[in-house]
Amino acid sequence: MTYPDVAAPLRAFDTAIAKASSDDAVFAALHGLADAVAGAKLFTVMTVDMPAGLARRAYTSDTVNYPGAGTKPIVHNSWFDVVHKERRTFVANTIDAIADVFPDYALIDSLGCQSVVNLPVVLGDELVATVNMLDVEGHYTPERVAAIETYLSVPAKLACLLTRRPLT
User: Fold this and answer.
1) Which of 29, 17, 32, 62 is nearest to 44 (CA)?
2) Whole-number Å distance between alpha carbons of 54 and 44
3) Could you give the CA distance from residue 155 to residue 58 in angstroms, rounded to a whole number?
4) What is the DSSP letter of 83?
5) 90: Cβ–Cβ under 8 A, 6 or more apart, which residues?
6) Domains in the chain, ordered, with CATH?
7) What pLDDT was estimated at residue 1?
8) Cα–Cα distance between 58 and 31 in angstroms, integer?
9) Which positions ≥6 away from 16 have C-beta within 8 Å?
10) 0.85 surpassed by pTM
11) Confidence of residue 167 (pLDDT cuts 50, 70, 90)
């Protein structure tokens, strides 16, 4: 995606964030930008609570299969090493690669998702959340991942900052 292609989605995100009066509205704006930048059949934002060992779902595009405010235990595996320790984007483009790190891989597959990108959100040198996009096998090409990292990193930080304070 080139600059002219992303300009309109970034303006739409800016407008939506400026008007957002709830956490759902903030993350819905980020979801819209993510769809424009790379696409996602399933989009979630998980906040991280390391002392409790839990990730909490702050936003979901599929409230039936992945309800809001749901939790998952933080599992110390290769995904953890990439996202939590190295603070790099995790990418898996097959259901087998997803099955290696996510225990809910069968549900993910049943939703028609066989690829995933998890973008870490780091504030004040602390991993506070991951932005998670899932789609069909092979969807997250190197070009799409580069666009996600380039165009979603700062908006994801803004969205997480906004949801950490009361909205008026």
Assistant:
1) 62
2) 15
3) 16
4) I
5) 79, 82, 83, 101, 116, 117, 118
6) 3-163 (3.30.450.40)
7) 58
8) 12
9) 25, 28, 29, 32
10) yes
11) low
